[in-house]
Amino acid sequence: MRVLSHRGHWLEQGEKNTLAAFERSFAGGFGTETDLRDVLGSIVISHDMPSGAEMTAAEFLALEGAAALPLALNIKADGQAVAVRDLIEKAGASQAFVFDMAVPDTLAYFAAGVPVYTRMSEVEQQPAWLSRSAGVWLDAFEGTWYDRDLVEKLLDSVSVCVVSPELHGRPHPETWELLAPLAGHPQLSICTDLPLHAATFFGVNP
C-alpha cells in the first residue's frame, strides 16, 4: 500500500494545497493528491475557482521528490489534457495519474496518453472506461458501501486508490480495518488527511 496525503501533508486547514504542505509530504515520502485548474493559459494548484495568484502546476511538479512519488491530480476543469501531459512529461513524474475529470473529457486524457483512474462510488458502481483505465478512484460519500472482496477483485486488473472517510467528514477506523489485510498489496493506495497515522496503522514505509 502507498499513502497519499490529501492536498499535501497539512497540519492546519489553511495549509491545504500550499508549498509547506507539499514539501512536508514529499519530505515524508508520501504520495500527494492535489487539484488542477487553468487560469489565463496556465495550469495552477487550486481546489476552488482560481484567482491567478496560486502556485503553478509546474512549480508543484518541480518540487524535490515530486517526480519520484505517486501524484494524484484531481482535474477540476475541462480542456487541460495536453497541457497536463506536457507538464507531467517535462517533470518526469512517472507515477502521476489524473482523476475526476468529466466523463467526456476523460477521452482527451486517454488520447494524450495520461494514466487515468476512473471513479467508482455508491452512485457510480459501473465506472466509465474501466478497461482503458490504469486504476480506480474508490470513493464513498455517505458510508463504506464496498467490501474487501470488491477491492480484491478490482486489484486483480487495476490499481486502486481508496478515498479515506475523513475526507468526507466521517470516521475512518472501520474502513481502515477493512483494508488492513490488503496493506501489503503494491497496487493499493489510500488518500488521507492523516498520512502519518495511516503509515503507522497499515505498517507501511512512506
Automatic annotation (TrEMBL):
Q: Which SUPFAM superfamilies match?
A: PLC-like phosphodiesterases
InterPro entries listed in its UniProt record: PLC-like_Pdiesterase_TIM-brl
GO BP of this protein: lipid metabolic process
Q: Name one GO molecular function term.
A: phosphoric diester hydrolase activity
The protein's name in its UniProt record: Phosphodiesterase
